[in-house]
Amino acid sequence: MADIIQIDDIVVVTLAGELDNLEANKIRSTISSSIFTGTVKAVIWNLSKLGFMDSAGIGLILGRMRDLAPYKGETFILNPSPTMEKIFSFSGLASNIRHGSVDSVLGEIGGVLHEK
Amino acid sequence: MRNEMTLSFVAIEENEALARMALTCFITPLDPTLEEISEFKTIVSEAVTNSIIHGYNCDGESLVTIHAQIDGQKVSMTVEDHGEGIFDIEQAMEPMFTTKPLMERSGMGFTIMESFSDHLSVESTPGNGTIVRFEKMFSPVTEASRMR
């Protein structure tokens, strides 16, 4: 299940349940269209409520990073479980991981975008 | 303890969750930690997804078979299909290599299976199918955690 909200130029995707290949196929286009609505500057993947994820999650997030590339958008992965964190690290996404609240990441993005 | 099971199902994506659930129940008597459960579930999910998507192209007819065995704290498992097979196993096991980039497969399946298991081997014949075998050791239940 994916809950998508937009705060200014930032899309927050909150995932729940189990993210496998079947689920990724169900939610991919909805998330993509929220990125294509305008000039999205960042996507925050909030995984606090996600119970399970396999490599389909990596495919989903890398795919949306490609969608974001034309806008030079940033990607943040918030609160993955220890197992998910390992999977992200194997895939070269360790530097995108944050722990804390959505607000704390929004604050960080504000700073980053301001510097640009 | 000792236990053994076999599970077969047709190649549809919905059965990835079935395999994860069944195998998670199977290892519950070992009192695994949350992280052990979630690593084990991920291995099962990757192996089964490979058979369903790559082996059989989600044909909804052909069977994927899982055989699992518990010996003490060791779980051994095979995931077998009689599908397409892998033409170059070494290449298939490279991180980020995938034959299905358009389906947004990340190519991380084998890397994850290798990292989360204690032993992994792959046997495959093009046109004849693939068998993935792995073993995972689970930490013994300590007296302290038994008391809780």
From TrEMBL, chain A:
This is Anti-sigma factor antagonist. InterPro entries: Anti-sigma_ant, STAS_dom, STAS_dom_sf. Pfam families: STAS. Residues 1-93 form the STAS domain. Belongs to the anti-sigma-factor antagonist family. NCBIfam families: ant_ant_sig.
Automatic annotation (TrEMBL), chain B:
This is Anti-sigma F factor. Its EC number is 2.7.11.1. It catalyses: L-seryl-[protein] + ATP = O-phospho-L-seryl-[protein] + ADP + H(+); L-threonyl-[protein] + ATP = O-phospho-L-threonyl-[protein] + ADP + H(+). PANTHER family: ANTI-SIGMA-F FACTOR RSBW, ANTI-SIGMA-F FACTOR RSBW-RELATED. Binds to sigma F and blocks its ability to form an RNA polymerase holoenzyme (E-sigma F). Phosphorylates SpoIIAA on a serine residue. This phosphorylation may enable SpoIIAA to act as an anti-anti-sigma factor that counteracts SpoIIAB and thus releases sigma F from inhibition. HAMAP family: Anti_sigma_F (MF_00637). It comes from Sporosarcina quadrami. One of its GO terms (molecular function) is protein serine/threonine kinase activity. Belongs to the anti-sigma-factor family.
